[in-house]
Amino acid sequence: MDTRTQLLDAAEELFAERGYNGTSIRAVTNLAGANLAAVGYHFGSKAELLAAVARRVIEPINNAQREGLDRLLGRTAEPTVAELVEAFTGPMFDGMPAGDERSVRRSRLLVTILGDPADEVRNWMGPVEDAVRDRYLEAFRRALPELPIEELWFRIKGVLAVTTVDRLEPQGDAARRWAVTFLAAALSAPPTAPD
Amino acid sequence: MDTRTQLLDAAEELFAERGYNGTSIRAVTNLAGANLAAVGYHFGSKAELLAAVARRVIEPINNAQREGLDRLLGRTAEPTVAELVEAFTGPMFDGMPAGDERSVRRSRLLVTILGDPADEVRNWMGPVEDAVRDRYLEAFRRALPELPIEELWFRIKGVLAVTTVDRLEPQGDAARRWAVTFLAAALSAPPTAPD
DNA sequence: GTCTATAAAAGGATAGAC
DNA sequence: GTCTATCCTTTTATAGAC
Hints:
The structure is a homodimer. The first copy, chain A, is built from 10 helices and no strands. By secondary structure, chain A is mainly alpha-helical. The first copy, chain A, has a domain at 57-188: Tetracycline Repressor, domain 2. The termini of chain A are far apart. The interface between A and B is large, with 43 and 44 residues. The structure holds a DNA duplex.
């Protein structure tokens, strides 16, 4: 395999387990069996290595979420909450059969990256993800017209939090179906009564 | 204020915003207006400083959760799901009026600490928290007897994830009540049908 | 308890040979 | 593309004066 890919694989594993600041370039090149200078040559800097790793994991998920929403809206003008939840969270569980070591790594990377406070991580994300998220927010708003926008926004943040739950053990795609049950019920709850 | 406390305050703020590995002892002592050597003198090491910070934030929450459960079980042998959720999540929102700068900091510290992959963070937590969590798990199990234990466990992890949702903007204790609504509905959902 | 000074190590980056 | 060698900065930790 080419060095570039081995660096990506090694970085993916280490960023997932130790976070951005907890991972040194030396650790990455050692694990990849490459030379210390390789990261500079192939990516330019540690921050750009992170961007490449994150792109590789997140872009397919984002695309699947967007396409899932398109497909859903093409089929019906009024998708249910459960359908929206499935389209949004499904891709975060797809291609990650339980037991597969690579899946565990990617899942953990999502957890770590989505929660990493390092500037290099926070700055990279945002624009890409936000576009998809906003489209879902709008769709949920229409499916839950009686819910005040502030509480809906809180629930969407709750959804994001739950999708990062560690899912190391569940067999099959149990976690995926559990997540849909959990989130569909949470989103469908009647609005909280005001003070 | 004594130096020790100022170091704790400064460290709390910086760990919350940049994580453990992203925070240097220099940054802490600068913000605290103390000397670089002060951390070594008062705490021994950076890792022990973190432990002191985490203890100060988490212990009161843990105690309140334990006492809340005791109170609940003293009143009724069969608490409802909503009552259990309130007892468990309430303390994570208490003493944190929105708008108060210190509250924002503590809330963010919880988010960062509960998700920080650094060994120094992960190793510190665990035993203390687990005892309380297990008691709640048992109580939820009794309140939801028809739910398979594996799915219940997944839902508990979902609860933990949601309690770390950033709650910077909501006014009053709206976030607290929204969280209870969200989580009570999620936990009360019927079991997911098996494959 | 607080300060200066410094030790000792780790980290990011790159120049230049091959 | 890959390697060695090295520079420069940042970091944790501590010894010893005050």
